[in-house]
Design brief:
This protein is an alpha/beta fold. The chain has one domain: Maf protein, CATH 3.90.950. The chain is about 30% helix and about 25% strand. It contains five helices and six strands, in the order βαβαβαβββαα. Strands 2-1-3-4-5-6 form a six-stranded mixed sheet. A hairpin with a 4-residue loop joins strand 4 and strand 5. Helix 1 crosses helix 5. The longest helix has 17 residues. The radius of gyration is 17 Å and the shape is elongated. It starts with a strand and ends with a helix.
């Protein structure tokens, strides 16, 4: 059974990624596992989600010698010309709440019918044994509320209202969110790619 390193140190992302990935014939580890002993932290110098996901997957694959899966994702708001985009996690220093309150402040004068937004996720899989890299993308559409709603999730979940489920990410279970979210959709594609191309 091959090792598969899920290369994230974000507990919220890891929980969602493992749930969406489901059962796979790999020995799955993460950066938070004590026995992984891989130095965490990769500078995200890419200009796109795909570039950053590949950069992280390759670097963690090289450091660990294991098949590595990494993800990069972010929020694109129409009224802000696609911002915060690749800078979503770095939009403001401090907590998740600091970031989404900065977003709400930037959008305070945007009318309700102009608050459309989408999350994008790209998952990259890198095999250091063969040098093969594959990517999978997912998208999640909705709009930005004027006030946070719900107490679950992480990141911008309290202010992102899903068009499909008619609730915020902070009001969803992990399973509900994975059924519609950018990360859930990308990970479901990654599941199929892992089985088809990396299961040897």
């Amino acid at each position: 059974m091959r090792d598969l390193l899920i290369a994230t140190g974000n507990a919220g992302k890891l929980r969602e990624m493992l749930d969406a990935l489901g059962k796979v014939p790999f020995k799955v580890t993460s950066l938070t596992d004590e026995n992984t002993r891989v130095r965490a932290g990769v500078e995200e110098t890419g200009a796109t989600f795909e570039e950053n996901a590949i950069l992280k997957a390759k670097e963690y694959g090289r450091r660990s010698g294991k098949l590595a899966l990494a993800e990069d994702s972010g929020l694109e708001v129409d009224a802000l010309d696609g911002s915060p985009g690749i800078f979503t996690a770095r939009y403001a220093s401090g907590s998740d709440a600091d970031r989404y309150w900065k977003l709400l402040d930037a959008m305070k004068d945007i009318p309700d019918d102009k608050r459309a937004a989408r999350f994008v996720a790209v998952v990259a899989i890198y095999d250091p044994a063969s040098g093969k890299t594959r990517t999978c993308e997912g998208e999640y559409r909705g709009h930005i509320l004027r006030e946070p709603q719900g107490s679950g999730g992480f990141g911008y979940d309290p202010v992102f209202f899903s068009d499909e489920l008619q609730k915020t990410g902070a009001e969803m279970s992990v399973a509900e969110k994975n059924s519609v979210s950018h990360r859930g959709r990308a990970m479901q594609k990654a599941h199929d790619v892992l089985l088809a191309e990396f299961n040897y």
